[in-house]
UniProtKB/TrEMBL annotation:
UniProt-listed InterPro entries: Aminotransferase_I/II_large, CobD, PyrdxlP-dep_Trfase, PyrdxlP-dep_Trfase_major, PyrdxlP-dep_Trfase_small
Cofactor(s) the record lists: pyridoxal 5'-phosphate
Pathway participation: Cofactor biosynthesis; adenosylcobalamin biosynthesis
Role, per record: Decarboxylates L-threonine-O-3-phosphate to yield (R)-1-amino-2-propanol O-2-phosphate, the precursor for the linkage between the nucleotide loop and the corrin ring in cobalamin.
Entry EC number(s): 4.1.1.81
Keywords: Cobalamin biosynthesis, Lyase, Pyridoxal phosphate
Pfam families: Aminotran_1_2
Domain Aminotransferase class I/classII large span(s) in chain numbering: 27-351
Catalytic activity: O-phospho-L-threonine + H(+) = (R)-1-aminopropan-2-yl phosphate + CO2
Molecular function in Gene Ontology: pyridoxal phosphate binding; threonine-phosphate decarboxylase activity
BP GO terms, sorted: cobalamin biosynthetic process
Protein name, entry field: threonine-phosphate decarboxylase
Amino acid sequence: MKWPNHGGQPETIKQLFKLKEDVHIHDFSANLNPLGPPAWLEEEISNQYHTITSYPEPSYLKCSISVAAHESIDPNMLLLTNGGAEAIFLIAKYFENLKAMVVHPTFMEYERACKHYHISVEQIMFEQENEFGLPIQTMCEKLKETDVIFLCRPNNPTGTVINERDLLLLLEEGKKTGTSVVVDEAFVNFLPASVPSLSSWLATYPNLILLRSLTKMYTIPGLRIGYIMANPLIINALRDDQIPWSINSIVDAIVPKLLDDVQFVERTKDWLSEQSQYVYKKLASIDFYHSPSQVNFYLLRDKKQPHRTEELFHFLLQNGILTRHTHNFKGLNGDFLRLAIRSKEENERLLMILQKWRNET
Ligand SMILES: Cc1ncc(COP(=O)(O)O)c(C=O)c1O
């Protein structure tokens, strides 16, 4: 079976599993915000229509200043990118031919980017038995031979958040061994206020590189916008390697407005807090494991029948629920499914189908 590499592809899955075209699928496989995009965005995009007849200003100065102000950093510590994906590949280019460490299970594009730029990768595993914590001792022992560590925080697919103590240790030791720490914060704005971004650490740690994406929070995978935050020397080098006009003029104009919409993010956090509590409580009551996620997706496994995950995937699909398989997440081997937290109605439907699975199997 050739499983798709990413979630959010209901049409491909329908063809793969020969489902009828008109079957309605609830897509729990992509980890996008179900409240988005913000309601005003459609009109604002058409208001910016006139910008497409000119090249964007190549340094994106106005937009960069506004994003930097939002992050409370200097604009020369910021580079706008064509989504988080371009950010990952630009950073890999910066470490071309060197040695990286990637902690799995995690987003597969770090390894793909490393391969593309001939970076050798040491694969380390999160400690599944320890709530997917970092094997910090092992990592520290290997720092001398490591030029860059790729971390995802919150991590895709587990939704877990690496603790600050471990990160501080890696950054401190990394200063001594010349190791940079890349932290992909694509999902950081789903976290509760008690777990802040690491942007305030950039001033202390020149070996810290942060990646962001606006894709997930604002449900705009088609627009392509992300950014990198790092010390100015790194940012300058990355800018030299970036394709000219990588960000289109419409995006350039609307990013400041997206970041200004604080209420949208707050509404999202309220929905997430309410719905995740509801979903996790119910899952526990019908004997399903969920990873200790702090964001809008989690790993699921049937505690009573842990080796029937593939059958569970098919059962859910036949009942109109698409989940994300985990065959291409190293260390998970398809043993879990990744699901998004969706709207109240969709979550209720999911839980009803899981109850049906419990009753019938
Ligand atoms: C952890 C992580 N980083 C980055 C990306 C890429 O985001 P973008 O769509 O902005 O390129 C994804 C997309 O799934 C992701 O899960």
